[in-house]
Amino acid sequence: MKSTGLKNRAWQLAAMLVVLIAGLSFASCASDDGEDKEASPIIGTWKSEASSTGTYYMQFTEYKQYFFTNDIYKGNTTEEGDYTFSNNTLTLSPKGKAPRTYNCKFKGDHLFLTLASGKEGELQFIRYTPTKSVKRVKR
Question: Buried b / exposed e across 33-66, counting CB within 10 Å, b at 16+?
Fold first, then answer.
């Protein structure tokens, strides 16, 4: 009889541990304010399209930093700084230069930027995923 009672207590303890672990794993999925936050659509790498200055890339990180480069594989930046993005308004704060504010429009994998001051035309970009070519091994 004592062994049956002991087994029941062991099963109850094991069940409580499983519930505790499951509860902790669900609680760890939420953000600090209790809601899951969606990634900003600006985060990632963008390749210029139809630019008079040639091809260049913009990289926006989740840490509110951005980089411009002409060669994505060498890592040489032509401009870098901090950015803010809210309500489809992008403000770039480059190191050593005055901030610039753009109005953003997204259409699928395309990004269209227009200076808020209206002094330039529209800049066009496409979402870019860097890939490296893989050499095939002949057998």
Answer: eeeeeeeeebebbbbbeeeeeeebbbbbeeeeeb
CA–CA separation, 80 and 101 (whole Å): 15
Half-sphere exposure of 56 (CA within 13 A, CB side): 14
R_g (Cα) of the chain, nearest Å: 25
Q: What is the pLDDT along the chain (139 residues), one digit of tens a residue?
A: 566 766 777 777 666 666 666 665 655 554 555 545 678 999 999 999 766 778 889 999 999 999 999 888 887 889 999 999 999 999 999 999 999 999 999 999 999 999 998 777 888 999 998 775 433 444 4
Q: Give the three-state DSSP class for 110.
A: strand
Residue found by looking up tokens 């990632």 in the block: 44
